[in-house]
Amino acid sequence: MIRQHVSPRSELRPLSWAPWPALTGERPVTIREPESHWWQANPEADPRGTAPAAASGGAVTIAVVVEAETRWGHGAVVSRLAELAVEDELLLVYGQEGLSGAGSRNVIAGLRDHLPRHHLVVVPVPDFSAALEPDDSELLAESMEDGSLPVVVTGESAVQDIAAELATRLHADRVVRVFRMIDGVDVRPVWQRTAAARA
């Protein structure tokens, strides 16, 4: 069972997600950056790509990991995520394949071991949620400002939409995918905010 921790300022604010569209007859509104087609258009999202990793250091980084990358030898992936959390302001989006939650529990426990001074905020998001409510994004932003490490756990099919929306709402500097390779762990830049967009 995943232990959920929230910052004291948000203990009385329950998380809320956009309702299932089939029940309301409405489509949830998802905010997108102009660069939102990066998942399909950017070959750097593929671990076989050749582009170098983007420079980091104090950036707001959203890291995306799916359960297949942590099924065996998850320790190396967790270690690399811990390094990213020290270098940048990190938010992790973890995509799990089933309902057992074993993969996310292992990653969260590993992060707690590697980062004992970090406060982890675990936010489960149903994979049928196409969009986060503004209050949820504000809670995640507050957690990062407090120095916490938010971990958004959702279904693998939803990680792209969730990561794209969080990149917009949190004004993230970059989104990366973390892959477990034969010889270690690779961090591939999927999208990076342009200098013009930062201005």
Describe the structure.
- With 199 residues, the protein is of the alpha/beta class.
- Mean pLDDT is 75; it is low at 1-32 and 43-56.
- It contains 7 helices and 6 strands.
- Strands 3-4-2-1-5-6 form a 6-stranded mixed β-sheet, sandwiched between helices.
- It has a single domain, classed as Acetylglutamate kinase-like (Carbamate kinase), CATH 3.40.1160.10.
Task: Provide a concise account of the structure shown.
Helix content is 31%, strand content 22%.
Number of strands: 6
- CATH H level, superfamily name: Acetylglutamate kinase-like
- Number of domains as seen in the coordinates: 1
**Main sheet specs:** 6 strands, mixed
Structural class: alpha/beta
Task: Supply the number of helical segments.
Answer: 7
**Any idea what the radius of gyration is?**
16 Å
Order of helices and strands: HHEHEHEHEHEEH
Question: What is the helix content?
Answer: 25-40%
List the keywords:
single chain, 199 residues, Carbamate kinase
Detail the topology: elements first, then pairings.
Layout: H1 21-24, H2 38-41, E1 60-66, H3 74-87, E2 89-96, H4 102-114, E3 120-124, H5 134-145, E4 149-155, H6 159-169, E5 174-181, E6 184-192, H7 195-198
Parallel strand pairs: 1-2, 1-5, 2-4, 3-4
Antiparallel strand pairs: 5-6
Helix pairs in contact: 3-4
